Each structure stands twice: as C-alpha cells, then as structure tokens.
C-alpha cells in the first residue's frame, strides 16, 4: 500500500494537482485570490497538454513509444536531485548578488516588463554558452538528443543543467535590480511558456501561432532551435521574447520548404540512456585525451562543439556559413522564383 501511496503522490506532483486538491479538500478557495494560488491552479496545464498530445498521437496512429520513453526516464532520474540543486542555486545567487544590484525594483507591471527583458538576457547568455562552450554543451546536449518534438522533451535535461542555467539567469537579474518576488513570478511564466513551446504537431500542428509568430518565440521557432539542419543550427536562444536573438543575429524563422530534422549532429543511440545522458562527456574526454599539448586540451573544453586542434572545424557557425555559401550558388529555375537562400535570408530578417 505504501508503494501505491508513493506512486499516487508522484502522479499528483507530476500533474501539478496538489494545490488544487488541497483547496478542494479544505474547501478554502480564497487561495485563488493570491499569486501562489493562481500559480498552483495554472500548473496542471502543461501536464494535461502532454496527456492530450499522447492521446491524439494514439488516435491518429502517430504514437511511438521511443519518442517519449527516454525523456520520461530522464525525468524520473532527475526528479529529486535536479530540482533541489536548482532551488539551491537560485537561493545562493540571490543571497550573494542582491546586495550588489545597480538599483532596486518593485513588483509592478512596468518593472515586470523591465525584469522580463533582463531575464531573457540572462536566459540568452546561459543558452548561447550552452551551445558555444563544449563543457556547457555536455550539460545541455541531453535536451537536444530527441529526434522528434513533443512536450515530454521539456523534461529531458541533464541534472546539473538547471543549476547552471539558474546561476547565470538569477545572477544577471539580481545585479540588474530585479527583486526576488518579481523574479519568481517571471520564472513561473518562463517555465510555463518554455514547456509549451515544445508542443509537437499532435497539439499544435502549425507552431507559428498566427500573428504571434512575428512578436514572440513560438513552438515553430523552438522547433527550429532543436533542429540539426545547417540553416537552423544555433538559433533562437531566447524563450518568449525574441529581442536578444534579434540583437545578436541568432533569430531564425522556420522556412516553409525546409523540413526540420531533430537531434544532434552526431549519431546517438536514443535507446541507450548512457549515450543520451553522458555521451557528450565521453566524446569530450576522448578529444581531451587525444589532444596534443595542455593548451589544446583546455581549448577542447571551452571552445565550441566541433572545434578541432587540426583546424578542420565543424562548429555550428562553420557548418551554417558553408551551407549559406552553397545556397548562393543555386540558380533559380525561372527568373521570378525565389531561391532557398533568399527565402532563408527573408525568414531570418
């Protein structure tokens, strides 16, 4: 019976139903008038969307167990340790850096706008470095190994990635004066939207979301981010607001005639937990071991994935640039026809 009780608690916790059940059992719905009550009431949305996604996939005969098995297995592995590390990282950064803030903000709508722009900058830094620094890529790559897009992918992370991400994002926000209650509210919005943008076609077939595609980062943009197509590599690092991707030139729309290929550039055995979870660490260690000289060993750790001491680099920047150069050479069949290169440039802008 204890096992069943624990499973029930885990299921309720995963579905985000604990706050709602507490209100129902006590009959006290006044909590809905508070911020914590509202957040608790909204928390089941993403888990229920995941259930709907799976049901629709089964109904339309598109369900593949391998699309969901590894992300759920990773979620179970990370269930306790990853969550508490992230909480500790946020608390530590607030305690250390809040006193060095340039100025103080309050929990108001105008500071919310400011705070969210600052949060997105911190998110951009963590995410950009997660793709451009080999060691940080080892923490982030687990999230990119799935070869399809669905809501379960949002649960697939290396257990240390949350702590690394929250250290950077929280430090940036504290130094910029974002007060902690406002930060926690922003983190809730970010986490909810960050989960939703992983929705697959069984929930949101056209991930562009109409006119919103021009103003915020939609599931379509995040599908681009998870792609290994040369054009799409290392783009769309923000989460909700695309301002910093536009500022730093990493913004990329989905190109209609370029189907997305999900995954990472190396061959991954998605049935093997060790390969999915620790594979990048293994190949980094292998490169460091074989590299001649201490300086080259250090550079393998901190240079972008694909960097080589031989000069034969296969980084995302090199691969994307070569791809765009090859598209320039394409000739349209008819004069009025737009080449894929021109389409890509238009979609980027």
Automatic annotation (TrEMBL):
Q: Which Pfam families match?
A: FA_hydroxylase
Q: Give a Gene Ontology cellular component term annotated to this protein.
A: endomembrane system
Compartmental location = Endomembrane system
Q: Which UniProt keywords apply?
A: Lipid metabolism, Membrane, Oxidoreductase, Transmembrane, Transmembrane helix
Task: Tell me which domain of life the UniProt entry assigns to the organism this sequence originates from.
Answer: Bacteria
Q: Which PANTHER family match?
A: ALKYLGLYCEROL MONOOXYGENASE (PTHR21624:SF1), STEROL DESATURASE-RELATED PROTEIN (PTHR21624)
Q: What is this protein called?
A: Fatty acid hydroxylase
Protein species of origin: Chitinophaga parva
């Amino acid at each position: 019976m204890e096992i069943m009780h624990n499973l029930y608690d885990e299921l309720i916790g995963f579905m985000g139903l604990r706050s709602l059940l507490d209100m129902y059992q006590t009959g006290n719905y006044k909590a809905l008038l508070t911020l914590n009550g509202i957040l608790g009431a909204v928390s089941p949305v993403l888990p229920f969307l995941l259930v709907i996604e799976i049901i629709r996939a089964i109904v339309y005969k598109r369900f593949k167990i391998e699309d969901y098995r590894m992300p759920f297995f990773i979620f179970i592995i990370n269930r306790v340790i990853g969550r508490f590390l992230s909480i500790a990282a946020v608390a530590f950064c607030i305690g250390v850096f809040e006193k060095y803030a340039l100025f103080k903000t309050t929990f108001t709508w105008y500071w919310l706008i400011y705070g969210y722009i600052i949060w997105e900058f911190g998110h951009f830094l963590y995410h950009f470095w997660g793709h451009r620094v080999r060691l940080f890529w080892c923490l982030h790559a687990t999230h990119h190994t799935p070869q399809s897009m669905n809501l379960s992918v949002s649960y697939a992370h290396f257990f240390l990635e949350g702590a690394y991400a929250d250290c950077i994002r929280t430090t940036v926000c504290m130094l910029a004066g974002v007060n902690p209650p406002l930060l926690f509210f922003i983190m809730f919005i970010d986490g909810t939207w960050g989960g939703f943008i992983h929705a697959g076609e069984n929930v949101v077939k056209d991930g562009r979301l109409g006119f919103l595609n021009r103003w915020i980062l939609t599931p379509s943009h995040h599908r681009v981010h998870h792609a290994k197509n040369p054009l799409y590599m290392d783009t769309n690092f923000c989460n909700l607001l695309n301002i910093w991707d536009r500022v730093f030139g990493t913004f990329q729309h989905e190109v209609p005639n370029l189907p997305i290929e999900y995954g990472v550039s190396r061959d991954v055995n998605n049935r093997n937990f060790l390969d999915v979870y620790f594979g990048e660490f293994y190949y980094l260690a292998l490169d460091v071991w074989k590299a001649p000289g201490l300086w080259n060993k250090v550079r393998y750790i901190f240079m972008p994935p694909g960097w080589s001491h031989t000069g034969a680099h296969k980084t995302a920047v090199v691969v994307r640039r070569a791809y765009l150069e090859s598209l320039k050479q394409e000739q349209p069949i008819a004069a009025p026809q737009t080449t894929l290169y021109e389409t890509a440039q238009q979609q980027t802008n």
